[in-house]
Amino acid sequence: MKVTIVGMGAVGTEITGFLVNMAEVSEIVAIDRNRERVEGEILDFSHTTSFTYAKNPRMVVGDYADSAGSDIVVITAGAQLTQGQTRDDLVRANSVIIREIIAEVERYSPGAIVIVVTNPVDVITWVALKSSSFPRERLFSSGTLLDSARFMRIVSDHVGIDPKNIFGYMLGEHGSTGFIPWSICNVCGLDIDTYCRLNGIPLIDKAAVSAEVRNVGYEIFNRKGNTNHGIAAAVFRLIRAIEADERSVLPVGVLLQDQYGVDDVVMSVPCVVGRNGVERIVNYAFGFDEQAALHRSADHIKSLIALAQ
């Protein structure tokens, strides 16, 4: 499997670190404007291969021509947050950047699956789709996969068990209007309130958890200047699901076309992810308030899309 990373900042570099240890990856192409720095990163990664039990993938610092025939392309490039900004503030700058990138990706790897990570990721993915002929099944975003992992960890800390035993999602926008559909969340098969009651655990403050999930990324950013470990792990999770044809249900940002009463908006809903990318969108019967929250999130994304055009 050939994977190209466009944008070798903190996130792209960490994704590369995961891929070097993935036996199924035969070639990694790194594309970035700062070629000298990326050459240093790839040279550094090359010295890890004596310790790994993988295929020792070919690692290339190159341009889009070198990426030709990629199976998966991950796009992390774009203007980055500065102190005091939100993801929404990046709309105009990154909309211009993504149009340039997706044209080159389509030129050299028209059959690739493209995963967009650049923020604000819902809007930027919409722009990429509208600026190319990639179908929504093969061009989608990391969406709220990281938000959902954060949610599972926060609940896990409350109930004192492994986060892999928590089921639930943050859906909608990867941002301020994302929401948790509590009606489908559970701990070990029990709804969260029931699990807490039966096991002598205080009930969860759902409003506080929702706010923490939405804001914890900014908390990390304020302390270290970026977020990279969690999002890189989320992207790697998607790549594994694609390569292994897992058909796992994951919350990714996909173009909705009348699903859940929303049309022509990219936002995160549960999707089956496999060898062909987004194999299908999973339907849930959300409660009235949850459906309303999803529509509010869609309306907010539409307002940002207007800025990108």
TrEMBL record:
Lactate/malate dehydrogenase C-terminal domain boundaries: 144-305
Keyword set, alphabetical order: NAD, Oxidoreductase
Function as written in the Swiss-Prot or TrEMBL entry: Catalyzes the reversible oxidation of malate to oxaloacetate.
EC number(s) recorded for this UniProt protein: 1.1.1.27
UniProt xrefs under SUPFAM superfamilies: LDH C-terminal domain-like (SSF56327), NAD(P)-binding Rossmann-fold domains (SSF51735)
InterPro entries cross-referenced by the UniProt entry: L-lactate/malate_DH (IPR001557), L-lactate_DH (IPR011304), Lactate/malate_DH_C (IPR022383), Lactate/malate_DH_N (IPR001236), Lactate_DH/Glyco_Ohase_4_C (IPR015955), NAD(P)-bd_dom_sf (IPR036291)
Domain Lactate/malate dehydrogenase N-terminal: 1-140
Binding positions (NAD(+)): 7-12, 94, 117-119
Superkingdom, taxonomy of origin: Bacteria
Protein's recorded name: L-lactate dehydrogenase
Active site residues according to the UniProt entry: 174
Transmembrane regions listed in the UniProt entry: none
UniProt record, GO biological process: glycolytic process; lactate metabolic process
